[in-house]
Amino acid sequence: MNETTVRYSRPPLIGEPAPDFRARTTMGECSLADYRGKWLHLFSHPADFTPVCTSEFIELAKAAPQFKAMNCSLLGLSIDSLFSHLAWMRSIQENFDVSINFPIVEDISMAMARAYGMIHPDSDSTATVRASFLIDPLGTIRATFFYPMSTGRNVAETLRLLAALQENDATGHSTPANWRPGEPTILAPPMTMEAATSRESKSPDAWYFQREPGRVKVES
């Protein structure tokens, strides 16, 4: 087994169980089991006291009520110490008048970062990339996305993606490109000629593309 294999793990894939964890955070200890029955947005950031990360945390804190309304908790992570996290949170409060209202994991050992593949093998440092995981109430990975260290995440897109996943869970419908909560969804394509013919006769849409009214709505 080579050194890269020893040091790094691949990120968990969509549909796989989220790796278990127990970690110390700015709001006390937490574990994956604590979030059972809720959605979880777990996300890493390269380092405290950096400008892009600061901008992300400000926007996530502002959007926290929207995530809460969708039964989704926020959990940040970096390999910085708990004391660094606390000092950074205080600095954000003092300089930007924004309270970071979600916990940040201290991962000095990098155990959690490795388990979630947050440190990439070709990285020239131990800083985590901007990794995000949407974990459903059963503890299953439902979406993953990675941003480079130089680019901040789009919080509105994370909320849109969460809404799309919840729409699919509730209705079985898929969501088209650029879909927004409340807009029409689309049905799975028919699997028989009879179903295709029946659908075409009942809808002005193409037989393989049929829209249905949306369900989930998010306050903007």
How would you describe what is shown here?
- The chain folds into 2 domains: 151 residues, Glutaredoxin (3-Layer(aba) Sandwich); 41 residues, Antioxidant, Horf6, Chain A, domain2 (Antioxidant, Horf6, Chain A, domain 2, 2-Layer Sandwich).
- A 7-stranded mixed β-sheet has the order 2-1-5-4-3-6-7, covered by helices on one side. Strands 8-9 form a two-stranded antiparallel ribbon.
- The N terminus is likely disordered.
- It starts with a helix and ends in an 8-residue tail after the last strand.
- The chain has 220 residues and is α+β, with helices and mostly antiparallel strands.
- The protein is elongated and about 65 Å long.
- The protein contains 6 helices and 9 strands.
- It is 32% helix and 19% strand.
Give the helices and strands as they follow along the chain: HEEEHEHEHEEHEHE
Could you give me the name of the CATH homologous superfamily of the largest domain? Glutaredoxin
Termini Cα gap: 50 Å
What's the alpha carbon Rg, rounded to whole Å?
20 Å
CATH level 3 topology of the largest domain: Glutaredoxin
Tally the beta strands.
Answer: 9
With strands numbered from the N-terminus, the spatial order across the biggest sheet is 2-1-5-4-3-6-7
* CATH architecture identity of the largest domain: 3-Layer(aba) Sandwich
Q: How many domain units? A: 2
As a percent range, the share of strand residues is 15-25%
Structural class: alpha+beta
